[in-house]
Amino acid sequence: MSGDIAVSVDVAALARADDQQGALWNHETADLDVNVVAFPPGSGVGEHVNAEVDVLIVVIAGEGRAEVASRVYPLAAGVALMIPKGTRRSIHCTAARLVYL
User: Which of 4, 13, 50, 63 has the fewest other C-beta atoms within 10 Å?
Assistant: First the structure.
Protein backbone atom coordinates (compact mmCIF):
# COMPACT_ATOMS: atom_id res chain seq x y z
CA MET A 1 0.00 0.00 0.00
CA SER A 2 1.29 3.46 -0.86
CA GLY A 3 2.36 5.70 2.01
CA ASP A 4 0.17 8.55 0.75
CA ILE A 5 -3.15 6.74 1.27
CA ALA A 6 -4.93 7.23 4.59
CA VAL A 7 -6.22 4.16 6.42
CA SER A 8 -9.31 4.32 8.62
CA VAL A 9 -10.75 1.71 10.96
CA ASP A 10 -13.74 1.86 13.33
CA VAL A 11 -12.09 0.57 16.51
CA ALA A 12 -15.30 1.05 18.52
CA ALA A 13 -17.14 -1.32 16.17
CA LEU A 14 -14.31 -3.85 16.49
CA ALA A 15 -14.54 -3.59 20.27
CA ARG A 16 -18.29 -4.32 20.15
CA ALA A 17 -17.77 -7.57 18.20
CA ASP A 18 -17.80 -9.71 21.38
CA ASP A 19 -17.40 -13.01 19.53
CA GLN A 20 -14.02 -12.12 18.02
CA GLN A 21 -10.69 -12.64 19.79
CA GLY A 22 -7.01 -12.21 18.95
CA ALA A 23 -5.87 -9.80 16.25
CA LEU A 24 -9.01 -8.02 15.01
CA TRP A 25 -7.21 -5.67 12.62
CA ASN A 26 -3.66 -4.80 11.67
CA HIS A 27 -1.77 -2.49 9.35
CA GLU A 28 1.95 -2.35 8.70
CA THR A 29 4.16 0.14 6.89
CA ALA A 30 7.89 0.70 6.88
CA ASP A 31 7.49 3.07 9.84
CA LEU A 32 4.51 1.70 11.78
CA ASP A 33 3.00 -1.60 12.86
CA VAL A 34 -0.44 -1.19 14.44
CA ASN A 35 -2.92 -3.80 15.67
CA VAL A 36 -6.30 -3.95 17.38
CA VAL A 37 -6.24 -6.97 19.70
CA ALA A 38 -8.92 -8.57 21.89
CA PHE A 39 -8.60 -11.13 24.68
CA PRO A 40 -11.27 -12.81 26.81
CA PRO A 41 -10.91 -12.89 30.60
CA GLY A 42 -8.01 -15.04 31.75
CA SER A 43 -5.99 -14.79 28.55
CA GLY A 44 -3.52 -12.37 27.02
CA VAL A 45 0.08 -12.07 25.86
CA GLY A 46 2.71 -14.01 27.77
CA GLU A 47 5.92 -12.51 29.06
CA HIS A 48 8.33 -11.52 26.30
CA VAL A 49 10.78 -8.82 25.18
CA ASN A 50 10.38 -6.73 22.03
CA ALA A 51 13.86 -5.42 21.22
CA GLU A 52 12.93 -3.72 17.94
CA VAL A 53 10.54 -0.86 18.77
CA ASP A 54 8.77 0.99 21.57
CA VAL A 55 5.15 -0.11 22.02
CA LEU A 56 2.12 2.11 22.71
CA ILE A 57 -0.98 0.41 24.09
CA VAL A 58 -4.28 2.32 24.09
CA VAL A 59 -7.13 0.44 25.79
CA ILE A 60 -10.44 0.70 23.96
CA ALA A 61 -12.61 -1.55 26.15
CA GLY A 62 -12.45 -3.96 29.06
CA GLU A 63 -10.01 -4.38 31.90
CA GLY A 64 -6.65 -5.98 32.39
CA ARG A 65 -3.14 -5.51 33.61
CA ALA A 66 0.25 -5.11 32.03
CA GLU A 67 3.37 -6.20 33.80
CA VAL A 68 6.35 -4.22 32.56
CA ALA A 69 9.79 -4.83 34.07
CA SER A 70 8.13 -6.46 37.13
CA ARG A 71 5.82 -3.47 37.71
CA VAL A 72 2.03 -3.89 37.31
CA TYR A 73 -0.04 -1.30 35.43
CA PRO A 74 -3.85 -1.48 35.54
CA LEU A 75 -5.50 -1.30 32.12
CA ALA A 76 -9.00 0.06 31.43
CA ALA A 77 -10.77 1.91 28.63
CA GLY A 78 -9.00 5.19 27.92
CA VAL A 79 -5.66 4.20 29.46
CA ALA A 80 -2.51 4.56 27.34
CA LEU A 81 0.73 2.83 28.27
CA MET A 82 4.08 3.33 26.52
CA ILE A 83 6.50 0.42 26.85
CA PRO A 84 10.13 1.05 25.88
CA LYS A 85 11.81 -1.43 23.54
CA GLY A 86 13.93 -4.01 25.27
CA THR A 87 11.62 -4.17 28.29
CA ARG A 88 10.15 -7.48 29.50
CA ARG A 89 6.34 -7.35 29.47
CA SER A 90 3.08 -9.30 29.55
CA ILE A 91 -0.59 -8.31 29.17
CA HIS A 92 -3.58 -10.11 30.69
CA CYS A 93 -7.34 -9.59 30.58
CA THR A 94 -8.72 -9.60 34.13
CA ALA A 95 -12.42 -8.80 33.69
CA ALA A 96 -14.56 -7.91 30.67
CA ARG A 97 -13.01 -8.65 27.26
CA LEU A 98 -9.87 -6.53 26.87
CA VAL A 99 -9.55 -4.69 23.54
CA TYR A 100 -6.55 -2.47 22.83
CA LEU A 101 -4.76 -0.75 19.98
Answer: 4
pTM: 0.88
Give the largest CA-CA distance in the chain: 40
Q: Are strands 71-76 and 33-39 parallel, antiparallel or unpaired?
A: unpaired
First to last CA, the chain: 21
Give dist(CA 79, CA 37) in Å, integer.
Answer: 15
Strand duo 98-100 + 55-61: pairing: antiparallel
Q: Cα(14)–Cα(31) distance, rounded to whole angstroms?
A: 24
Give DSSP secondary structure letters for 48-100: EE--S--EEEEEEESEEEEEETTEEEEEETT-EEEE-TT-EEEEEE-SS-EEE
CB contact at 8 A, 61 and 18: no
